[in-house]
Amino acid sequence: MTPEELSAAITACLQDAVDAGDFAVEMPREVRVERPKSREHGDWATNVAMQLGKKAGMNPRQFAEILSARLAKIDGVAKVDIAGPGFLNITLDAAAAGSLAQTIVETGDSYGTGEEYAGTKINLEFVSANPTGPIHLGGTRWAALGDSLARILQAQGAEVTREYYFNDHGNQIDRFARSLLASAKGEPAPEDGYGGDYIADIANAVLAQNPDALSAADPQEEFRSRGVELMFAAIKKSLHEFGVDFDVYFHENALFEDGAVDALLEQLKTSGSLYFDEGAWWLKSTDFGDDKDRVVIKSDGHAAYIAGDIAYFKNKRDRGFDLCIYMLGADHHGYVARLKAAAAAMGDSADRVEVLIGQMVNLVKDGKPVRMSKRAGTVVTMEDLVDAVGVDAARYALTRSHADSNIDVDLDLLTKRSNENPVFYVQYAHARTCAVARNAVAAGVERSAFDASLLDHATENELLAYLGAYPSVVATAAKLREPHRVARHLEVIAGAYHRWYDSCRVTPLGDAEVTDLNRTRLWLNDATTQVLANGLGLLGVSAPERM
Description:
The protein has 19 helices and 14 strands. It has helices at about 5-20, 50, 60-70, 95-105, 135-155, 170-185, 195-210, 220-240, 250-255, 260-270, 305-320, 335-345, 380-390, 390-400, 410-415, 420-440, 460-480, 485-505, 515-540; strands at about 45, 75-85, 85-90, 120-125, 160-165, 250, 275, 280-285, 295, 325-330, 355, 360-365, 370, 405-410. The strands form four sheets. The chain has a five-stranded parallel beta sheet, sandwiched between helices.
């Protein structure tokens, strides 16, 4: 019995109780079941009696007693206990619990998917590093988290567009162009310019494309246009090698070139969303929690930076997106209120905008911080991390912590082939399930029979419970925008599998006869293979069959 099937059974019991006049209450859309903190409290727990008891005009525990009597009659339910003020703790019999293994294998890649966001078009913008240098560690973290979140939302039925916003309009591009020009001339970088070997590499590449670039009518523009294009290509290549590809690369400059910003500002002047003061036009961003209102049109008539943000949001909505999620760095907390205000300025709901803020990443080796890249000069880059630990370890390490927490990435730990290394721990569990399956074939054990009641060992009960919780973990990760929940749950499953492996054999010892217990355990082994592979796939991490 899956958690979803149990939830449906509880809902049916509620409806039967209402029909019988036991109580009157509005039926919930869904009854939530979850794993109790202690295994002694059963397989699954629900607080539905506490949610509905008072609404039915009775004590939650009294409500729970009525419901528990009906739940106890469900096929597959061994017992129902009432705890505290009205929690219902449900224990399944071995056959009901064990049937999940067959369900998972037969469901395959679809196990853990849902329809919560079916029909929802989501624009997910992440990384969006300036095209003035390689992707640093913060951007690398967003690449891992953003791509994983996109996969998780898609697993819940959403239509997700991965979008990269190229900031190719403004002062930073001018500084980049001046840095390239200085390098080409053999001069030191400007005081406010960019350093690092990559500047010389790109400057030389520009000269290789156009040997006469230094004598062009506007040398700085020549280096700007060609340099941004080359940097853009290098960033896309790095992301692709990291397993991250975007559906849309949106250029900020396009908003200004086609007049979208100017047209929008004229529209907003008459919308009531802006007000005129001290010679400038201001956005009422304090209405959404900003510490002050923001200038949109400066007193000299030029658009402020936030004008582009408003035009960009409008562009996304015009493209038909229901929800716009922005994944921004630690220094962008102020943008939460500003972007919601931008939505409201367009007459839209502020709920159309979500902003996720990520914190810093520190690289550690030999117990000491790694602060500088040989190539970039001042920061550690995506390439540095991948070169040190590989794509899988890098993606997993950056995804397994909450985005809004600072993390230390220990390079020594991530290169260890031991249980201390979380990505190795999970991948090894998957490889071990594959080895068990290969050994089963050699021993003549096939999935030709299945008797769920035979899966009654304590480690089997534990493993089945964690496998059963996987769909709700994915659904919660999507709802809360927290991919780390999937990674952490995979580690729990891996631990449960390793304990089961140490206690229960799939293949018979020596010349012993193959029994239905062996065949049934093979189903459980293969169900674990499937869930680990599905979960690693959501994180963009490989599921190796051998290690």
